[in-house]
Amino acid sequence: MEDTMSLHPSFCAWADGSPMHFFGVFDGHGGPQVSALCRDQMHVILAEELARAATAYRKEHRENDEEAERRAWEAALKRSFERANALGMGLSESGLPIMGSTAVVALLVGGSILVANCGDSRAVLCRAGNALPLSQDHKLERPDERARVDAAGGKVRTSDDGQLRVRGVLMSHAL
After folding, report:
1. For 144, what's the count of Cα atoms within 13 Å in the CB-facing half-sphere?
2. Total-model pTM
3. pLDDT of residue 92 exceeding 80
4. Residue 173, CA distances (Å) to 13, 78, 103, 123 in order
5. 3-134: CATH superfamily
């Protein structure tokens, strides 16, 4: 099994002392290395990035600014995914055959849920029996995802089975 999960209640605190909770699911592709790396490191990386964001937030905001908090949390999540990606790339440079992992992470703080994802891992909230999507899959059918692949020098092609693929791979976005 190449899928992993990571649950870390109260893994760090925000600038105001509020506990932050981390939940992640990582779907390994072609081997367990990157999903295991994410399981073991993503919350550590995110705690570092959130500590840096909290310090900057405290310096810039004397009173509670919910929009500024949300931007700080989102930036910390983005930097964490970038750092995890760099760690995964380091594994591939070691000569091991590494394929990667999709990921979805939920960060809970106060009354907020923030979700970040990479690839086709998704978060859904069930409320009163209704499924509410909290993320969007990175699929090649999305115009913005195709544009991202094109901008990175990739080529989207239709395979013999009618699926859109990049370099023969169905998934276009992964760590």
Report:
1. 3
2. 0.84
3. no
4. 30, 14, 10, 16
5. PPM-type phosphatase domain (3.60.40.10)
Cα–Cα distance, 38 to 27 (Å, whole number): 10
User: Is there a contact between 175 and 99 (Cβ–Cβ < 8 Å)?
Assistant: no
> 126-153: per-residue pLDDT in tens?
999 999 999 988 777 888 878 887 888 8
What is the rounded distance in angstroms from the CA atom of residue 168 to the CA atom of residue 1? 23
pLDDT in tens, 16-25: 999 999 999 9
Which residue has tokens 């370099």?
A: 167
The backbone region for 112, taken as left when phi is positive above 0, alpha when psi lies in -120 to 50, beta otherwise, is beta
3 state SS of 47 = helix
Domain ranges of the chain: 3-134, 138-175
